[in-house]
Amino acid sequence: MYRITKQFSFSASHRLDHLPEGHPCARIHGHNYVVEVVLESAELNADGFVRDYGELSPLKHFIDERLDHRHLDDVLPGGTVSSAENVARFLYEFAADRWPEVAAVRVSETPKTWAEYRPGGAGN
């Protein structure tokens, strides 16, 4: 299996107002997010790639237009909690609709934390 990844970044705010009073994430706050899209294929294409990285530019455009310098609670689909896990799934769904090789999307809010959405995982 071949695997490639590409990183993107954006800055945004959010608030997890369902958390208990005093929890730092219950207040409005922001992150410098890092997004990593993972593509996998058992075979390489005629150019020797899983997919040309340049073909992923629509994801960069989507992130820049829909998420960068926005309040995530205002842009995620109705009522979606703006956790890193849900941002990962939101971006996975965009990417998987365009590129069949997409296997997962990872989202980092801090240098030491990552959330990943990969369909078919535990509990499915």
Structure description:
It is built from three helices and five strands. The chain has 124 residues and is an alpha+beta fold. It has one domain (2-117): Tetrahydropterin Synthase, Chain A, CATH 3.30.479.10. A hairpin with a 2-residue loop joins strand 4 (102-110) and strand 5.
Summarize the structure.
The protein is of the alpha+beta class. Helices cover 22% and strands 34% of the residues.
For this structure, the CATH topology is Tetrahydropterin Synthase, Chain A
CATH class: Alpha Beta
Beta fraction of the residues?
25-35%
The assembly state of the depicted protein chains is single chain
Write the layout of secondary structure elements.
Layout: E1 2-14, E2 29-41, H1 57-66, E3 70-71, H2 72-75, H3 84-96, E4 102-110, E5 113-117
Keyword list:
3 helices, Tetrahydropterin Synthase, Chain A, elongated, 124 residues, 5-stranded mixed β-sheet, alpha+beta
